[in-house]
């Protein structure tokens, strides 16, 4: 430890001074932040408006739909996790971690997210959120137990089942409350999940189209990518919210949430396409020629040789773009006038009980914590996937 400190932090007089100054500043900032969180912060505004931050203006008599959707998704997530874990143990037994409980593994990987959930539960004023947390954990554990028992060739069926469960959950929520009435963290998560699921395949197709040998397809893909990469996202969202009515009759125009999803998908897919194109260019030409020499068709070469390596090489950049998309959902809320998570501070401090008390800092720190937990978990899982696939190794 002493050797590491001397080598990295106190190698010279200048390094020592820099370390002391920056270290002291970091300790002071951390102290002020922790003092604000645990001593001086007035968190009653968050406790009182917790439902506003999480579900917006969702009707209380329809909250059971959210509960059912979360429990169903938790069970499906556990089922997939158990199936993947069994596949890994069978295919790469040396890579497994014998004796380490799966629950401990999940805790070590998602601790910021779990701490955030515990914080939300501690702020809850009713027993409902606690029952939801216990039910979701039980559903995940049940799926995690059943997953390893599924046949080895159930991968495609699981993908189909996941799509069915996801679409059924969305239908269940929309059947009770229309999209434009959604709000809070629920809206941000929905926008991010749907947009990521749609922009990734579209971005891959655009990247392949930009490298296509057909001039028309290549020109169209290039024009699309450069157009959406050259326009600010907030401008596209404002145009979709304001200018769309000049071209489409009001009764035919989609709702604000649907418009936001379309814009987020169109915008992010252009960046995903450039990321994937960089991965495609990183695949050695010799492997493509080897695939052709074996008699594989161009489609088979792309599907079996090029794309797997290209996507593996750009995992860090892809996850970074998805994290950016998750945070950009707040722009959709601001441009479309939706009450998303970031709109919660303004709505809560405008209430008569909290007006003029300067509580905006507490609400913003609460929002910051939730976005940090989600982004950190995505980044951590990305690093774990990179290590498993050996990204950056030869």
Walkthrough of the structure:
The chain folds into two domains: 41-58 and 181-394, MetI-like fold (Orthogonal Bundle), CATH 1.10.3720.10; 60-176, no CATH class. The protein has 18 helices and no strands. It is mainly alpha-helical. The longest helix is centred in the last third of the chain and has 30 residues, at 360-389. Helices cover 76% and strands 0% of the residues. The model is unreliable at 94-99 (pLDDT under 50).
CATH topology of the largest domain: MetI-like fold
Q: Helix/strand-derived class? A: mainly alpha
Number of domains: 2
Low-confidence stretches: 94-99
Order of helices and strands: HHHHHHHHHHHHHHHHHH
Please identify the top-level CATH class of the largest domain: Mainly Alpha
Shape: globular
Largest sheet: none
Mean pLDDT across all residues, rounded?
88
Classify the beta-strand content into a percent band: under 5%
CATH architecture assignment of the largest domain: Orthogonal Bundle
Can you tell me the CATH superfamily of the largest domain? MetI-like
Q: How many DSSP E strands? A: 0
Number of helical segments with 4 or more residues: 18
What is the CA-atom radius of gyration, in angstroms?
Answer: 24 Å
N/C terminus separation: 30 Å
Specify the helix fraction band. over 70%
